């Protein structure tokens, strides 16, 4: 598992909360995409970002919370926000980063390898911050085996 350690700045993304099994977050991404189209801001989207707030191994899938977000090249004005689209802050700090090429369906295996193999053997431990994924290309026009995802795991030294 090829992990790099990065220090990241705090950033603000804009998102919609999803409650339910993590593989169903695509519904929230469709909703935020529809909103962005209606607002005429799709050209300002840099990346899609998913933030995972709960551990699906310890919480029932239907109770898992996540945020389907967009990182934009400029901040939104308050009047552009809606009742469901809100600013979400991703806290800066130390992160273990894994670059994945391929299907989103394979990401669960990456998480298992990180938490069960890499992390216990490293000099790091997980922090209270949520992990997040940055989708570097568009799944609507990219073959599944060419999808690029950076996964960020918040860590601190043991």
TrEMBL record:
InterPro entries: AraC_E-bd, GyrI-like, Reg_factor_effector_dom_sf, SmbC-like. Pfam families: GyrI-like (PF06445). Residues 1-156 form the AraC effector-binding domain. This is AraC family transcriptional regulator. It comes from Pragia fontium DSM 5563 = ATCC 49100. The lineage of its organism: Bacteria, Pseudomonadati, Pseudomonadota, Gammaproteobacteria, Enterobacterales.
